[in-house]
Amino acid sequence: MRSRAVLGVVLLSALALLFALGIVYGEATDRWFFGGALVGALLLAYSFIVLLLRKMGILGPRKAER
Amino acid sequence: MTLATQARPSPETAVRGRYGRFMTALLRGTIRLDTAIHRIYPTDYNPLYYTGGLANLFLLILVLSGLFLFFYYEASLGGAFESVRYITEGVPYGGIIRGIHRYAADAFIVAVLLHLFRNWFTDRYLFSRDNPWISGMFLLVFGGFVGLTGYQLIWDERAQVLTGLFLGMLRAVPAVGEPLARIFIGGAGVSNSTLVRVLFLHVAPASTLYVLLWWHYLRLRHPKIWPPATWVLFSVGLVFLLAGIIPARGETPATPGGRPTGFPMDVFFLLPFWLLNWFAPLFVVALLTVLVVLGFAIPYIGRREHPEAMSVRHAGVAQVIDGNCTGCELCYYDCPYNAIIMVPSPAPGLSRAAANRTLLAVVLESRCVECGICVGACPFEALELPAFLERDVRQAVAEAVRA
């Protein structure tokens, strides 16, 4: 389970890097909708990374819920 | 000591029973849904626990994106559509911000409705929780109205049709309908002042939402006002992505004297107008009024929420035993209803633990629901429910054990 989660984090991180490059490309070529959509895709990738980190136990529940 | 009395069954009980069974089925369905979600998400990441926090998040997105749009918007019949077109096509990332504003509005209503249904199905509107329920209904009504005026501000063909339909519904209201319509459009017909009023009716109720939120949280000790990081990232990412791949643009400008007959439907805000295809405006107004009134009345119409019907005994408002209170604040933090405040202690307590206190707990009678949580929170026996003393409970438990 943990190794699959680690693999997921690595893949999502690579994907996030691609999205970040796409944002730079969108900005450089004035493709604002393309760049904006990739900002969204980047944030979605980050959200799944955070979820996987939580499932791996690296991030804990919030203080109020411990 | 008996804690409950058996009531004789009556015809009302049978009705209550059917309603109760229906609500119990919905409660079980909600719990099953939670169980299914917990197979994917950890319990503290269940999005259904944070529907209120998500609505709050989308409201903040709406405010921030709305501020951006406000700088460029021109509230006049001739300039409104062109200013929106300029935002979409001429301002860097303006189209993205406009799309975010539009999709966050839809997401806000979805989150509010999920929040409403979840709290309804899980009985979180009973007793003192009628306060957040009523304020929540106001939030829903105000949110819906803000959404309607948002569509009008673009002043495209859809806005023109919507304004006509809305005025028709207002005028259908007996006695006050015509004056209300005149106030809404600022005269006998649509003019430049109409959009200024619509802009005001968009911004002012949206600002009021924060006042209503303050009321909503007023009696909740630990409200979940913000979702976990993963859901913040997911929600913000989703509205960005939608704004990028399905841009909010491509409308036809409104034409003076034009009579367009149709418009793209949006189920989140425009559903009542869809009903006008089949029903008279007065009927639709009456239907909406009945639905809203029923929504407000939910905490009071289900008979089972009376303490007597639930076999709950009145315990009396919690009382602080001055001499034992150490000012430790445990009761203050544990009270779910914000019914306990800490004040500077006027004198030392009587017990050894309370001798050096600096604070004293005070119960606000109007907020106390007699639940006894503070009694359990206090390790110094400094709180009691007058009609449900700890010694009585201990005696009842001892008798039950002996029996």
How would you describe this protein?
The complex is a heterodimer of chains A (66) and B (403). Chain A has 66 residues and is mainly alpha-helical. Chain A is 79% helix and 0% strand. Chain A has helices at 2-28, 32-56. In chain A, helix 1 runs antiparallel to helix 2 (32-56). Chain A is elongated and about 40 Å long. With 403 residues, chain B is mainly alpha-helical. Chain B folds into two domains: 17-297, Cytochrome Bc1 Complex, Chain C (Up-down Bundle); 316-386, Alpha-Beta Plaits, CATH 3.30.70.3270. Helix content of chain B is 57%, strand content 3%. Chain B is built from 14 helices and four strands. The model of chain B is unreliable at 1-12 (pLDDT under 50). The interface between A and B is medium-sized, with 26 and 29 residues.
Secondary structure elements and pairings:
The complex is a heterodimer of chains A (66) and B (403).
Chain A: H1 2-28, H2 32-56
Helix pairs in contact in A: 1-2
Chain B: H1 11-38, H2 51-72, H3 80-89, H4 94-121, H5 130-153, H6 157-171, H7 177-185, H8 192-217, H9 229-245, H10 271-275, H11 281-301, E1 319-320, H12 330-334, E2 340-344, E3 359-363, H13 373-377, E4 383-384, H14 390-402
Antiparallel strand pairs in B: 1-4, 2-3
Describe what is shown at a glance.
The complex is a heterodimer of chains A (66) and B (403). With 66 residues, chain A is mainly alpha-helical. Chain A has helices at residues 2-28, 32-56.
Overall shape of chain B: it is elongated
Share in β-strands of chain A: under 5%
- Count of individual helical segments of chain A: 2
Q: Main interface pair?
A: A-B, 26 and 29 residues
Give the total of beta strands of chain B: 4
User: What CATH architecture of the largest domain in chain B do you see?
Assistant: Up-down Bundle
Between the first and last Cα atoms of chain A, what is the distance in angstroms? Answer: 23 Å
